Amino acid sequence: MLRALWTAASGMNAQQLNIDVIANNLANVNTPGFKRSRTDFQDVLYQTDRVPGSAVAEGSQVPAGIQVGLGVRPSAVFKSFGPGTSQKTDNPLDLLIEGEGFLQVKLPDGSIAYTRDGSLKLDEQGRLVTSDGFPIGPDEITLPAEALSVSIGQNGQVSVRMPNQDELQGQGTIQLVRFQNPAGLEAIGQNLFKATAASGSPTDGTAGQEGFGRIVQGTVEMSNVKVVEEMVNMIVAMRAYEVNSKAIQTSDEMLSIANNVRR
User: Which of 184, 151, 189 lies closest to 170, judged by CA?
Assistant: First the structure.
């Protein structure tokens, strides 16, 4: 019965983490480029009283053993990089990556982070930056102050129309990167990810070529969180938490009965 107390407690701890992950998904339902997370679980150690296949008599073996599990633990919080919904904004600086790929972002320390959030802005220098002022990298793209309009092609080519000129002038190209295992990226907040040993090294490429997604101007990718699905997951997690608490209560009542047994 003491074993049941700790086993059920592990279930409650696991479901608490599950609820935390679901709550973060719901909190970011309107965050551009956000990718939902899913909690994976695995069983833990087993107490073995009889090994399956052990001999009980000459020439005979037990077909099944006696093993009692000792609970559950979270094994991973998996990031799902499925596409989010598209939202048309008609803002010429908003970008949607339709397919695989990440934008590169230059951080203040000189390192590179990655994002799917294409809601870009212009800073005081005319550079294309994120909402936090981090320039799109690795090569910064600066638009002239006198530019009348900006055009971003499906291949990431950034061009502007200048006064008294019919031809568009190129200002650079937004290069995309992708990873062998995007689920291995480390989320660092601010809609940014960093590469890890699990994600593998980034592979550069041009949008719309060699498996990279194409860029759509005037549209942003919203989160891939499905509210109804998350609500169902939350109900399931809540019921699992509740039934584990009932197991603790039942074990406590059984201990109480055992303690009150008299000769």
Answer: 151
Burial 103-142 (b: 16+ CB within 10 A, else e): bbbbbeeeeebbbbbbbbeeeeebbbbbeeebbbbeeebe
The C-alpha atoms of residue 122 and residue 130 are separated, in whole angstroms, by 8
Buried-exposed string 214-230: b where 16+ CB fall within 10 A, e elsewhere: bbbbebbbbbbbeeeeb
CA 209 to chain centre: 25
Q: Taking each helix axis from N to C terminus, what angle separates 227-259 and 2-27, rounded to the nearest 10 degrees?
A: 160
Cα separation, 150 vs 76, in Å, equals 43
Structure tokens at 210: 């060699």
> How much is the pLDDT for 152?
94
* pLDDT at residue 128, as a whole number: 95
Question: What string of DSSP letters covers 53-116?
Answer: T-EEETTEE-SS-EEEE--EEEEEEEEP-----EEE---TTBEEEESS-EEEEE-TTS-EEEE-
Strands 121-122 and 128-129: antiparallel
CA angle, residues 35, 187, 24, in degrees to nearest 5: 55
Kindly report the length of the chain: 263
Quick check: bond before 92 cis, omega within 30? no
Write out residues in the chain with pLDDT < 50, as ranges: none
Identity (one letter) of the amino acid at 123?
Answer: D
pLDDT on residue 1: 59
Give the span between the Cα atoms of 31 and 14, in whole angstroms: 26
Per domain, the residue ranges of the chain are 2-81+225-259, 86-221
